[in-house]
Amino acid sequence: MDRLYQQTLVIIKPDAVKRGLVGEIIGRYEQKGLTIGNMKCLKPSLEILSEHYSEHVNQPFFKKLIEFMSSGEVVVMVLEGVDAVDVVRSINGATHYKNALPGTIRGTFALDITENLVHGSDSSINAKREIEIWFRSEAIL
Ligand code: IDP
Ligand code: MG
């Protein structure tokens, strides 16, 4: 398989920020060799979260997810590197804490289905879509 240089979108969720795990989580991506292309801290609106999670709009957990994600500050990052999309998701671990392997971020720190510390794009196409959503209004400096 070819090695693809990719960008992916990571969100460090409000539970991780409240628990003081931002440095620990960013460190795991950096140790793997991924680099930070862009990064900011904000309290997301319901509108931007609805757009980001539009694929889940009909899921029973949607409202709880959006409320949780808007409950505090998050750190939004573009991470770059070889196969960044899949590498980030393997560092993050499985969505459900019971399935997340020890050593992954969720396997180490999560005990809740909703509050699972991190988001990582699930494909290169979605990474592009999500980067556009979260960073589109940036001024060109
Ligand atoms: P992912 O974050 O691993 O890509 P998705 O299936 O895209 O997982 O779900 C998005 C987010 O919605 C999850 O990270 C989690 O916070 C939340 N979520 C997913 N499934 C459930 C569920 O069954 N109950 C409650 N929350 C869920
Ligand atoms: Mg997902």
Structure summary:
The protein is built from 7 helices and 4 strands, in the order E-H-H-E-H-H-E-H-H-E-H. The chain has 141 residues and is of the alpha+beta class.
Describe this structure in words.
This protein is α+β, with helices and mostly antiparallel strands. It has a single domain (5-134), classed as 2-Layer Sandwich (Alpha-Beta Plaits). Helix content is 40%, strand content 20%. It contains 7 helices and 4 strands. A 4-stranded antiparallel beta sheet has the order 2-3-1-4, with helices on both faces. The radius of gyration is 14 Å and the shape is globular. Inosine-5'-diphosphate binds at residues 56, 61, 65, 95, 113-114, 116, 119, 122. Inosine-5'-diphosphate (IDP) binds at residues 56, 61, 65, 95, 113-114, 116, 119, 122.
Contiguous helical run count: 7
Q: Biggest sheet, strands in spatial order? A: 2-3-1-4
Strand residues, percent? 15-25%
Into which percent range does the helicity of residues fall? 40-55%
CATH architecture: 2-Layer Sandwich
Shape: globular
Termini distance? Answer: 37 Å
Q: What's the number of structural domains?
A: 1
CATH fold field value:
Alpha-Beta Plaits
Radius of gyration: 14 Å
Low-confidence stretches: none
Query: What is the CATH domain class?
Result: Alpha Beta
Helix/strand class: alpha+beta
